[in-house]
Amino acid sequence: MTANLMLIAVVGVMVGAGVTLVLERSLTRILVGFVLIGNGLNVLFLVVSGPAGAAPILGLSGDPMADPLPQAMALTAIVITLGTTAFGLALAYRAWQLTGTDDVQDDLEDDLIRRRAERDEVSATFDEVDDTELPDEGYAGDATLAPEDEVPA
Amino acid sequence: MTSLLDQLVLAPVILPLLGAGLCLAFGRFASAQRVISIITLVAVVASASVLLVRADRHGPQSFNVGGWPAEIGISLVADRLSSLLLLISTIVTLCVLLYSVGQGIVEFGRDAPLSVFYPTFLVLSAGVSNAFLSADLFNLFVGFEILLASSYVLITLGGTEARVRSGTIYIIVSLASSALFLISVACVYAATGTVNFAQLALRMPELSSPVATMLQLMLLLTFAVKAAVFPLSAWLPDSYPTAPAPVTAVFAGLLTKVGIYAMLRTQTLLFPTHELRTLLLWASILTMVVGIMGAVAQSDIKRVLSFTLVSHIGFMLFGIALASDLGMTGAIFYIVHHITVQTTLFLVAGLVEYRSGTTNLDRLGGLARHAPVLAVMFFVPAMNLAGIPPFSGFLGKLALIEAGVEAGDWLALVGVGAAVATSLLTLYAVVKIWNRAFWQPMADPEDETPVPFDPLVMGGSLHGRSSVGTATQRETTWKEDTEGERLPLRMAMPTIALGLVTVALTVFGAPLFSVADRAADELHERTPYIEAVLGDG
């Protein structure tokens, strides 16, 4: 099988950019990252389907047909990405409604350990961290605004 | 040729989807939705049991959807493994559905224009069935996506802050693993030109060994995220406990097991030479030990249970890693046992929460005196989970440990040691729950250092009308309402029924074990499956 190097490079760039975005804190950026990854993977399915050919409809043309199976898969993947993106956007909006930010919050376990350390001041692992520096101040239940978003625009 | 019975393989996928559609059509009539959901799932349980009997007697049942041949179309196959897991998962789903009906989990009212719980629940069931039955990698991906998409909705149900927070992490992890799955599917297709399991089984040996190992690693990695195998398990204890009790219960029972099932299927069918044994054994050992360490450290029932869930995934992985006949049999038996037991325990945790307003062990106590029935309902599955002798957990663990000893090399023996230690620590964890929540008297609130009320840990349940208010407000008002209330029979009955199923797994341990044994044989033979898929194309 001959692979199209150009398309592979495109896949690499899109997925790479997507992964970079997913590593951000803001849910909106993460979602954009997943959209990029998803589209990159759809291009990957183009690579996988081999050389381009005629439309894969039986009896329409005598030329070698393109492989229809990866196309069907890419189509399915597009639909799934659409659905999850829509849900993710709604979730980001809801998070923003509740906390004034759509930042992904810290793991609950981290919070619990931090709080346990605060209660137990002789704990060796507890160093006096100024709590306001922590990014997830909004957890207390009411809609306190989180501190200024420090992620550069 | 295509009699109605041949098409029965379709039923567990089609019926819940149909039911979900009907539920949406009757979106404003709660009782209609309940009736539709229950009827649908009863029908699915019936069809799954017929499938199991037929698969056991006549070999794998397959059906090519839309009449396309298996090579290019979608086919569904129910062999012994698939139909056994399908049956047990639909029974569990039905019980959880009845429980949530009893809980009155409906969001009608000012804020919700349309109730989404029942339709989403049915779609989840369809996704699980599709994953169990699918005979190709891409349809497995679609099955995963169906169940994940509905799990996104269920885990953020009500949209409270705690749930949005934990749901976000869950969704990001799931999306990442789905992307990985898609890459794996594309790579598999690039290497072999097919995604059909049967064809893959025939073509995999032709691949050069590094390529095959890479594909195996990618698939394993994907499924390890879904199944919460140790280094990739951090998302689970964080996201599950905040969801409503029935949702957590059905997730705990089914979702991770679908990942384990996918591993079992691909490992046996596609990669029978088994080159990654060492890696899998280490992963299983670490999953068992690290998971149970987490459980021991927790002080909330739901969180303890979430960590035991992670830990016991290690047992199933141990069986898969050993790959001997007995190991596979043990793993299959253990999956069946664990689906029911873990779900029952989470339902009981929901009842504890309903009755006492909290699942935090620091603020529970004396339940054995005030709610003796609830205590028994917790005690039996808890001992079962820990593997106390008469119960099915003991049988499963015994089989796995025997398989480890039989393998005999030092790593397998380390695994056996880890399994024994994990069982003991599981016992410790559940006894801790038992002592603090049920046995010892309620601590006097004044004496105690005040535990800050923690809306994070208290995911709350959707008892009563779901309000969009903050979790804190909702929990406190609701706690006053139900303090000291008797257990609602309609929530208790499904839990007791599921508890009886776990006991039945013990009583009928021998027939179940022989079915699991035959399923494992079938997995090792591989030909019946391949012939069923490709034969009557």
From TrEMBL, chain A:
Principal localization reads membrane
What are the subcellular locations of this protein? Cell membrane
Keyword set includes Electron transport: no
Q: Looking at the keywords, is Zinc-finger present? A: no
Q: Where is this region: Disordered?
A: 123-153
Lineage, top-rank taxon, reads Bacteria
Write down any Gene Ontology CC term: plasma membrane
Matching Pfam families: Oxidored_q2 (PF00420)
Recorded topology in the membrane: Multi-pass membrane protein
Q: What is this protein called?
A: Na(+)/H(+) antiporter subunit C
- Name the species this protein comes from: Aeromicrobium flavum
UniProtKB/TrEMBL annotation, chain B:
Q: What is its main location?
A: membrane
Residue ranges of every copy of the NADH:quinone oxidoreductase/Mrp antiporter transmembrane domain listed in the record: 134-418
Q: Which residues cross the membrane?
A: 35-53, 84-106, 137-157, 169-191, 211-236, 243-264, 279-297, 304-324, 330-352, 373-391, 411-431, 496-516
Tell me one GO biological process term: ATP synthesis coupled electron transport
The superkingdom listed in its UniProt entry is Bacteria
Q: Name one GO cellular component term.
A: plasma membrane
Q: Which UniProt keywords apply?
A: Cell membrane, Membrane, Transmembrane, Transmembrane helix
Membrane topology of this protein: Multi-pass membrane protein
A single Gene Ontology molecular function, please? NADH dehydrogenase (ubiquinone) activity
Where can this protein be found? Cell membrane; Membrane
Which family, according to the similarity comment? Belongs to the CPA3 antiporters (TC 2.A.63) subunit D family.
The name on file for this protein is: Na+/H+ antiporter subunit D
The organism's taxonomy opens as: Bacteria, Bacillati, Actinomycetota, Actinomycetes, Propionibacteriales
